Write the structure tokens for this entry.
Amino acid sequence: MANAATAPRKVLIIGGGFAGLECARKLANDDRFEVTLLDRTNHHLFQPLLYQVATASLAAPDIARSIRQILCDAANVTVLMDEVTAISPTEKTVTGRTGGKYAFDYLVLAAGAKTGFFGNDQWEENSLGLKSLADAQDIRRKILSNLERAELTTDEAERGRLMTIAIVGGGPTGVELAGACADLIHRSLKSNFRRIDTAKLRVILIENSPEILEHYAPHQSAYAKERLQKLGVEVRNQTRVTDVRKGELLFLDGSSLKAEAIVWAAGIAANPLTKDLGVETDRAGRVTPNADLSIPGHPDIFVAGDLTNMKDREGKFVPGVAPAATQMGAHIAKLLKEELRLETTRFADRKHDLRPLFKYTDKGMMAIIGKSAAVMKVGDFTMNGFPAWIAWLLIHILFLIGFRNKLSVLIGWAYAYIVNNPEARIIVHPPASAAPQKG
């Protein structure tokens, strides 16, 4: 318990994703800390299942939960919906888009990442990313609307463009999205249209590297490619995109592809707030923090999740995945608690030197490839096919936050598996005042 004469330390957390939320939960109801969590949305998002919202397998509320609801029993945690626009490390304040200023004793920057275009930001205008619920709903709207337009048109060239989905990026996001699109179109919707044959819809996965899922074992990459091709996905390896135009991709070899729906899943870029920290960043805007997750020169500022590019205390690279972000959030909370304890001992003047260093526990990698198949890699152990798919289902249910979300997703998956006909296929157009749809 905090000493009555000692004011609680102000911990400001930017971002309600896996890292920020875990840090807040670990500090909950510890009256030595006054925690404020800022996020530009009001919900925590289970990003690994975003592609299922994009392909109409799940509804948006199935994979999101109110941050306030999650932390409602944490008396020392205040949740505010505001988008941070500036950080002043020297003044120890951050500024929100609402104009509010927030002071801190400790800052945890876990604001996540956005879709990255390797310096070609102009490509964003003509493509769709997959980093938020809005992105997922845009993709779903685009795919379903294109099918409706294809049903109406009598122009074969236009119909071909409307019935082509190009997905750039052969990592887990691209592979899972491609498999889900193929399942949706070729199996789930095949009896829903009269003028078009959905079997003719093309799902094309484009990857610059020689293999898809290149961080998996070679036999798993080969298995994923073969499985996608059986689902009807065209896999194009060693194909480099040089330009993204409206409805068209251009490639290094001079060829092009007409596609009304272009999804960019080839890279990420850190939240630009990292530029305010005054430390070096990589090409994607990520920070290499100290081994305790603080940034050089500022022991009171920590970074976590997708904002980091680092190796842990054992020299192991820390990937940008949900388990790593969760572990980072827990580590920071543990460090802050230990630091306050040391302040009451003879080691107070060495508290920064005695900080525990972050150690990443590898929970493995998984990617689902359509219905009933997946790949799983944990260290040197690999597993493919139906057993990996079952493991994928169980692990994702386990890590979803909230009983309602777990139950809703489980029922949704069971129903879709049995009847092969997802229900979340309603097209909801944005308000007329909203920005025009991309892609």
User: Anything to note?
Assistant: Residues 61 and 316 are 35 Å apart (CA to CA). The longest strand covers residues 33-39.
